[in-house]
Amino acid sequence: MKVADIREKFLDFFASKGHTKVASSSLVPGNDPTLLFTNSGMVQFKDVFTGKDKRPYTRATSSQRSVRAGGKHNDLENVGYTARHHTFFEMLGNFSFGDYFKENAIQYAWELLTTVYKLPPERLYVTVYQEDDEAYSIWNKQVGVPAERIIRIGDNKGARYASDNFWQMADTGPCGPCTEIFYDHGPEVWGGPPGSPEEDGDRYIEVWNLVFMQFDRSADGVLHPLPKPCVDTGMGLERIAAVLQHVHSNYEIDLFQTLIKAAAREVTAQGNAVDLTNNSLRVIADHIRACSFLVVDGVIPGNEGRGYVLRRIIRRAIRHGYKLGCRKPFFNALVGDLVAEMGEAYPELAKAAAQVQSILKAEEERFFETIENGMAILDSALGALPKGGMLDGETAFKLHDTYGFPLDLTADVCREREMSVDEAAFDAAMNKQKQQARAAGKFKMDADLAYSGVATEFKGYDALEVANATI
Ligand code: ATP
Ligand code: MG
Ligand code: MG
Ligand code: MG
């Protein structure tokens, strides 16, 4: 089953259960200035859950484009290292706004997985929140999942991979337990079941999260039952596609294979040999999706906020191309291939293709001017370090400041070579430069004011000294 069919089957299944199909919203959330990117299907419905916004339906289904490359959910550092994380992915979801609750949500999920997608039930594991006996009993008694495949999980706040089965929008507001469905890719793949010490492996992969918004947490921490509990679910399209296409890594699904081949074509066109299983091709294939869709949604590369996240992802992709031998732009050439794969599901992508390509190309041309010299500096600095060494902050800062290497890019190169970077020293170097710039700016402003004849108040020698001392 191809990715496009899997998406369609999901939406059609929930439409047949009375859900309204709702289009994906933008990656730039329109209703939440505190959120960097739309990172799940529920984002566009946030106000509907709290009752602030009303819709003509109480059941909805969507395939939401999502980015997790900054802010609360950041999977940028997982890309290229796990089989299941992307910076950009599609989240399939079904939502109940005060309509059905746990029973239906669980039954629908099970029906879709075992009868529409026809997954063998014995490969499915579920987790429930440790105190959620209701969800446990629905899985066990009504659905018939045996006790040995139901795992109770607590809230592991702050753990990088560990399952966390209590969901909350923020410190206050709607929250509740969740239940997650995992697929066992088999003993050939390393990893352990959820809750075990090996759960960060790729054997048992979380495919679907069903969140039960059951409480409203007040500022004093007390949980008040919501009068109309809601359901919010999210299933990674690429993950379920891997399961249905009998491959264990998301990067082996049809959509990614096409993008990986396209990336290899560009690398080869520049005279380099590359194996299709090369990890850098995977990273490039991941990043072309995130970068293109971010531009479609109005983000442009820049030095701050969303624009800087985009710039960092583009530059990471370029660095991987550089590693494979590319010495001139290649990344923007993948936009056409992406449109061929996803343009039908996302007409806004097809429409903006030319603009996306030209923005990526400009950014690429810019970084290709400095990457070679920057990499030479980084190579020689790392070459001088002992095994497991730490790159000094001054060099990392020089790479950032003069060669346009974002810190995370430098850190990624270090990580590949089993080294690290002194981030505290990098921050110190950055702060020092900021202070200098501020002082220089103040000095210049005073001079400009004096020159323009505006009277400046004499603040004493101390102030002058401070300004001069840091120049
Ligand atoms: P994981 O534990 O694997 O990082 P998660 O618990 O952070 O996933 P949720 O927030 O529960 O993920 O999101 C719902 C679903 O979206 C997940 O069950 C998974 O199928 C999918 N998903 C989450 N993050 C990613 C990602 N970075 N790339 C691809 N799919 C993802
Ligand atoms: Mg995660
Ligand atoms: Mg998880
Ligand atoms: Mg989850």
TrEMBL record:
Reaction(s) catalysed by this chain's protein: tRNA(Ala) + L-alanine + ATP = L-alanyl-tRNA(Ala) + AMP + diphosphate
Domain Alanyl-transfer RNA synthetases family profile stretches: 1-471
Signal peptide: none
Gene Ontology molecular functions: alanine-tRNA ligase activity
Cofactor or coenzyme needed: Zn(2+)
Major localization class: cytoplasm
Primary enzyme class: ligase
Cofactor, how bound (note): Binds 1 zinc ion per subunit.
EC number assigned by the record: 6.1.1.7
Localization of this protein: Cytoplasm
Top-level taxon in the UniProt lineage: Bacteria
Keywords: Aminoacyl-tRNA synthetase, ATP-binding, Coiled coil, Cytoplasm, Ligase, Metal-binding, Nucleotide-binding, Protein biosynthesis, RNA-binding, tRNA-binding, Zinc
Domain text: Consists of three domains; the N-terminal catalytic domain, the editing domain and the C-terminal C-Ala domain. The editing domain removes incorrectly charged amino acids, while the C-Ala domain, along with tRNA(Ala), serves as a bridge to cooperatively bring together the editing and aminoacylation centers thus stimulating deacylation of misacylated tRNAs.
Sequence similarity: Belongs to the class-II aminoacyl-tRNA synthetase family.
Primary role: Catalyzes the attachment of alanine to tRNA(Ala) in a two-step reaction: alanine is first activated by ATP to form Ala-AMP and then transferred to the acceptor end of tRNA(Ala). Also edits incorrectly charged Ser-tRNA(Ala) and Gly-tRNA(Ala) via its editing domain.
Name of the protein: Alanine--tRNA ligase
This protein's encoding gene: alaS
Shown chain mapped onto the complete sequence: 1 to 471 of 878
